[in-house]
Amino acid sequence: MDGTKIRSALSMMDERGSGEGAGYAVYGAFPEFADYYAIHVFFDAVHESKAAVDRELGNWGTVVHEEEIPTYENRNIRKVHTPWRYFFKPDPSLMPRSETPEDDIVMHLVMKINTTIPGALVYASGKNVGIFKAAGWPEDVADFYRIQDYSGYIWLAHNRYPTNTPGWWGGAHPFNLLGWSVVHNGEITSYGTNRRFIESYGYRCTMYTDTEVVAYLFDLLVRRHGLRPEMAVKALAPPFWDDIDRMDAKERTLYKAVRLAYGSAMMNGPFAIVVAQRDGIVGFTDRIKLRPLVCGIAGSRLYISSEEAAIRTMEPGLDEVFMPRAGEPVVGRLGK
Amino acid sequence: MTIGSVPVRFRIVVDDSRCMLCGRCVENCPYDVFKKENDTIHVNSRKCVACHRCIAMCPRDAISIRERPVDYRSHPVWTEEARESIYNQARTGKIILAGMGNAKPYPIIFDSLVLDACQVTNPSIDPLREPMELRTYIGKKPGRLEFRDDGDCQTLVTNLAPNLELATPIMVGHMSYGAISLNAQKSIAMAVRESGTFMGTGEGGLHPSLYPYQDHMIVQVASGRFGVDINYLERGAAIEIKIGQGAKPGIGGHLPGEKVCEDVSSTRMIPLGSDAISPAPHHDIYSIEDLKQLVRSLKEATEWKKPVFVKIAAVHNSAAIAAGIARSSADAVVIDGFRGGTGAAPRVFRDHVGIPIEAAVASVDAKLRSQGIRNEVSIIASGGIRESADVAKVIALGADAVYIGTAALVAMGCRVCGTCYRGLCPWGIATQRPDLVARLDPAVASRNVANLIHAWTLELSELMGAAGINSIESLRGNRDRLRGYLLDESIMRVLDIKPVGA
Amino acid sequence: MTRVTIDAAGMHYTPLNRRIREAIGAGADEIIITGVMGQRFIADGVRGRATIIIHGIPGGDLGMFMSGPTCIVYGNCDHAPGNTMDGGMIIIHGSAGDAVAHSMRGGKVFVRDTIGYRGGIHMKQYQDKCPVLVIGGEFRSYLGEYMAGGLILALGDPGKNSGKERGIGSGIHGGRIVIRGGPLDDRCLGVGAAQRPLSGEGYREIQPLIKEFADVFSLDPDPLLRDRYTEIVPSSSRPFANKYTWE
Lengths: 336, 502, 247
Fold this sequence. Notes:
The complex is a heterotrimer of chains A (336), B (502) and C (247).
Chain A (H helix, E strand, L loop, with lengths): L3 H9 L9 E6 L9 E7 L2 H15 E8 L13 E9 L10 H16 L3 E5 L4 E6 L3 H8 L8 E6 L15 E3 L2 E7 L4 H9 L12 H13 L4 H8 L4 H5 L3 H14 L8 E7 L2 E6 L8 E5 L2 E5 L2 H7 L5 E3 L7 E4 L3
Antiparallel strand pairs in A: 1-6, 1-7, 2-4, 2-5, 3-4, 8-9, 9-10, 10-11, 11-15, 12-13, 12-14
Helix pairs in contact in A: 1-10, 5-6
Chain B lengths: L9 E5 L9 H5 L5 E4 L2 E4 L9 H5 L5 E5 L12 H13 L4 E2 L14 E3 L20 E3 L8 E4 L2 E4 L7 E3 L3 E5 L7 H14 L3 E2 L16 E5 L8 H6 L2 E5 L10 E3 L6 H7 L7 E3 L9 H14 L6 E6 L4 H9 L5 E5 L8 E2 H6 L4 H14 L7 E5 L5 H9 L4 E4 L1 H6 L22 H4 L4 H25 L15 E3 L4 H7 L2 E2 L3
Parallel strand pairs in B: 11-12, 11-21, 12-13, 13-14, 14-17, 17-18, 18-20, 20-21, 22-23
Antiparallel strand pairs in B: 1-4, 2-3, 5-19, 6-22, 7-10, 8-9, 15-16
Chain C lengths: L2 E5 L5 H13 L4 E8 L13 E7 L9 E8 L12 E6 L15 E4 L20 E4 L12 E7 L19 E7 L12 E5 L2 H17 L4 H6 L2 E6 L13
Parallel strand pairs in C: 1-2, 2-3, 3-4, 4-5, 5-6, 6-7, 7-8, 8-9
Antiparallel strand pairs in C: 9-11, 10-11
């Protein structure tokens, strides 16, 4: 799939945004560099900050290819940052104690660059994932990057209505870390708790918005703690205690353990979220369903959106349409 | 007559036009302020402690009390209290004993913190009509869960450590039998059982008449080890090691022999009428490694079935101490702020030693998180929790639950006269005199305490709902939902909060 | 009969509504809108007696503040069709999202299939206005939350409408919710809600509605008419009166 359809689906929901942030993620964007981490950086001024980023990457591995991401300025979007992408291979021997040394090196680099190199913001770091975001209307952002020139097997798109940081390119969704990309509709009232929780595991929240924490929570729970994505959703949007009390003994113990261990990871407030990783996507809402989420199935394709109309814009002939229950994950896995 | 008498602290006036000479003030005052002679009520104001028992009992509202009816020459440094303490110590050469919590007018941080509410960007939640979860577990939580892959599903491998399950994050702290009466303990016990929460026994053992409530009691092991035997340890729902107390950090306790009546003597397991002295330190804990030994020996004795708490006074390095406690196998750390109450403490300690609970909780929570050991222990905050807003604020600063003490006593009638150390509490709370104790009816007093916990719980739900939060986990450590109002930069850094408007 | 057809493909909702108003102003009895895809606020605040037939997938707040017309939708609706609707009727040949008939004051909303969370939230009645929401499929939690008046009738398969949902009628202090089958597990009921078997008189009241609903969607009314019903009503008109004490 190329980016044409998702562009039209997203612009159909312009009403949900304010023209100050939009973005796209595509998995399978860089087949020629599929085994390298695609480190995306916004530079305020390339000549000022790039040398420091190059040095940092050089300390931890090898850059096999790098380029300025092609952009096409239009009336509504000027290039206030220079988007850059590196294809990077970390040296696993530099983190000998880790079980996933390459991922851990990249995560470390993201946190380090974003907290110590002024004028450089790493906004994506996954293998074979392209992220395209800026401040503007969805269609303008799509045209700025010409997303129709990219194709892949998973697409995420988001239209932002910012309240905290309008005009901030880093604040546009999707948020990405390693293989994880997140789009989010809503606001997380538990952000302060979630941030303090995730920061105690070495993550640093640098995007001035609540959604980035979701990418880090998935990275922690799924990659580092080994929870399956469905179980990670149950940690973030757990069953109510009165429901847990009525479960059979085994389930009761499981969900009590989830709430006790990951109580600080639990997210509160209104949200509908879709998280992607290289082999699938998962969508879910908050526990009391304060945001909409609609799913559509057409053949082997799963669509998840805030509105059915957006799905139908991409796929008029759906086999099935449904609204998942509050807090229930909807998982799409890549077919073999 | 070098010093002479100092001015009376309180002046009592009985309005003759209202008084009907019923004599209830005479019967009710254990301090002998009132005498009835020749159809007149005579008053000795000098004996009054402002316990308000007479006022509460007077059927005609005939009694009024004025504090400090006599002016000193005003002076901002040499306050009346400063001068009177000197007269007292010049006369006696002794340490001044005082009751209740810190009485210095330090600014109260709670009162400079404001809570958040939702407007537009997220909806507030109506706690009466939508789920609102205040259930709180106190104890050790796994830092991560381990699963085994069983084909289609994951099976949990991690075992959970025992936790206390609280229906509301409000518990009643440790006030021992001896410091307070059996009726007072019984009232609290009935209330916490009804409210689905817990109380502390204090260091006074567990009276047999409280056994029916033992599943809601945390038994305390303090430096005097009074009343501690395996029977006591096994009865408690949890065990608390008391290292220190916010009202008097660094010093021990002393229950005077006069309060050691027959029942107190039997629950404390000491001879009738003998002083019950709690040493300043535990003499088997001179170091953090020794603390770990006591924690583990208590767990070993109770077969690892019960959470063990460690209570410390909030002092300058509470955060580092708590980090040590978190590594000791303990399940919870209780931090008692410098406003914590007491039956009796040297005034110089009560008023000058320790730090406020707000700062202590914030720094303990931050320290534990920075070391990745926050799940190892729950944090229980106590000392100066006066209302539901204080509960919400201290949880947002990082606590899991609170202990209330003075507030529970006030719910039973206490007027905070601060004269607990006299043992004459006319409300039947801080006394062992049978006629006074009989004034406190557990059926009524327990209702009052349960009402208080219920009302605060309702208010806490409303505050959370307004903030768009439907589970207490999402308030805990959520300092983003607090703002400092006219707090200075440095204290806001400690609390890790922003100022109002930011 | 005057009939007007509007092709809404690619059209913003403001010109679409302008066309609807113009048509009604010009005396149209029936307005057929084709190619609807996500346009919000269709017939928002529109008065009159026209029938508006919508083909496609309308966006949220269909018929909000509407006072009089009948909207017939051939497709699924987004959130809150019938929001604060005053009068008239919405017929949905499909499903609808969350907060259907939110704060509805009068008229009828018929949904053939499933609705989302908080259906009929805070419906209210006053004098001769008594709103009605009828659902043919499943509903989700918090059905009739804060309900202050009117009638919610859930005709869906009783087996599917029980069990998982919570907070039904939470905070209800007026009006009633009638559910086919029942009784519900008590834990599904919200605070302040009480359930009882529907009385004979109550049944007689819903009978014409069932017939009308079956007629509109060409269903066989007999199984619906034969089934048992449960009524959810306020346990008190002031369920939270005991919450406060004076300072």
